[in-house]
Amino acid sequence: MFIQSIAKKDVKTKKLIKRLKPNDIAVIKHRDIDEVAALSLVEKRPKLVINAEKSISGKYPNKGPSILIKAGINIMELDNQNIFEKIKENSYITVINDKIYENNKYIGSGVILTEEIINKRIAQAKRNIEVELDKFIENTLEYAKKEKNLIIGNLKVPEIDVNLKNKHVLIVVRGRDYKKDLRAIQHYIREVKPILIGVDGGGDALLEFGYKPDILIGDMDSVSDECLKISKEIIVHAYSNGNSPGLNRIKKLGLECKIFPSPGTSEDIALLLAYEKEADFIVAVGTHTDMIDFLEKGRKGMASTFLVRLKVGSKLIDAKGVNKLYREKFKLTYFFSILFSSLVPILTVFIFSPFSHQILKLLEIRLKLILKLKGILW
Questions:
Q1: 155 and 270: one domain?
Q2: What residues does the SteA-like C-terminal domain cover (predicted)?
Q3: What is the pLDDT of residues 109-163, one digit of tens each?
């Protein structure tokens, strides 16, 4: 293997994506590459992904590496994490087989992950999933006791300017298949015009589809400045003790915001906000709902999500995976079925209408006259 290109490097893949260009070499430090990160990398089409961490550690069967390989993007795992520190942003990297050169100087080596290696690691991870499931359940139950204020009403929800009462609310998280699901419900968005809430990078997801967030909520670590500036209202997620790392960024941009101190995830408090402000209906896109989702996010349990969904109940419709309902291709038989269905009422009205009877009678008389006339001529 021989690859040469410019290196783009970051310890956070979601930050690197913003700077990465096609044919760059992506240098990351991402243990257990998740599906969302992999799909984001595939969109940027790098020549190579160099990872200073284990792309599949064996903790759970993460799909990221398989997605990259299927897209024709090779993954190299570094033999030594110190190599990551040596690689500089925008330096010229050459990879020859398992050796790495920066500006023609040898800096270390790595292992190219083949499909065979990836499949072997996934098989090992699947055998380990039962152990992880036990840990996950224990953590969820333990933290559920600590985070019960999420549902018993002792949570201080900020006053907001956007009115949600008796309205439909669409909450968008940049999670698995969010683009496909957003595309599938565009008709709903156009017709119903719900209040649009972006959760961190979910705000940029809305912008991608031409929608401006009514509310942007989160810790502000993965949303663009552009989205922050055009969102109608910003709510910064703070820790239960009031500490809010995302607030500094908002202040630097000279923007106003509200603070929402709460345990749990930003998508949890987005659901709570909509519920507490008496939204009539809540639709969620891209949210994290199962163990794999949470393991991919680096969380050991899902206590807050479990509690919040318990509280929100029937008001919530999760649109995750809705795109799968629309995969069947159009068939010609559908066209004829629709055409026949539309003609039935027209034909029924025509047959039983007195006016139609008169027209048919006139046509009958005209036809007889023509036939008689032809008989004379013959």
A1: yes
A2: 320-370
A3: 999 999 999 999 999 988 887 777 777 777 777 767 676 666 666 678 899 999 9
